[in-house]
Design goal:
single chain, about 325 residues, alpha/beta, Rossmann fold, 2 domains, five-stranded mixed beta sheet
Length: about 325
Amino acid sequence: MLDFQKIPRVENYKFYLEAAFAAARKKGGQVKIQGRPEPFDKQKQIDAQKIDTVGGRLNSSLGKVLHAFPSIDSLPVFHRELIRAMLDWGQLKKSLGAIDWVLKKVSFFQRFYSKKMRESRNRSQLSQHRNEFYGRISSILKQINPELSYLENARKTFRQFPVIREGLKNVVIIGFPNVGKTTLMSKLTTSTPEIEAYPFTTKNINVAYIKTDSGDIQLLDVPGALNRGTKMNVIEMQAFLALKYLADCVVYVFDLTEQYPLSDQIKLYHQVKAERKDIIVYISKSDILDPEEIERFEIRGETSIEKLKDKIEKFISSLEPAPAAQ
């Protein structure tokens, strides 16, 4: 199961440098020299240890950042397309590649200057090689600071991504903004999401579960979708990606109180149907509607939470079992 919440904070280049240099200073004061070497030989050993500490610390901290981000090309198609919709795909790959480049450079300079320091014949050469190492390491990290900054912004975006459990059947709740989708989800499940009385309360995909005797059903409450064709914003795009790549079944929510014109809601309904997904219609806010108004509506739908839940469970149980996660 992908959990984008676990990606650690990405700091600026100074943070990593200062942490590495501080570790080197501490290590230098702890180096134990066997025997009673000449002062110059002792200093060479101490400086060599400092270089190894700087290199090791940078490889560890930057390596954790690199490996914490998912391998983009191996992600499920839904998450790949979500990244494309919400981030600059090319810049993300470039930024991760920049960290990989730095890791290789750090390892190279660590080996190169360790050898140089062992070959030093006097304190002047030793100091020169040590300062060159620190200078080059500082320079290459400074070069990728824009990439580090981009990755931190990407991390914040990733944290908004839903945690989708593989191997479960998915029911996507879709409809116009503020028609009662999130309220419906809370009634179908034990979820208690925050609900406000204004459009686009749901800015990302909320996930909850209907527990049945045959297993869990994954319920996805997606951001409100507007029937605007290619003019969808990022929030609306998430709804259509979930519909296209995740939905085994769709619950389409109509609001007959006409906060949005019914003609537009019906048009979106047919647009969803065009994706060839099985749809169960739910009519929200039925408690404040005239029953005759519901009866006159051209599309038949459920008004009872219990009947809707029963219909979802029966439909999902009729499907082939979801493939096991690889």
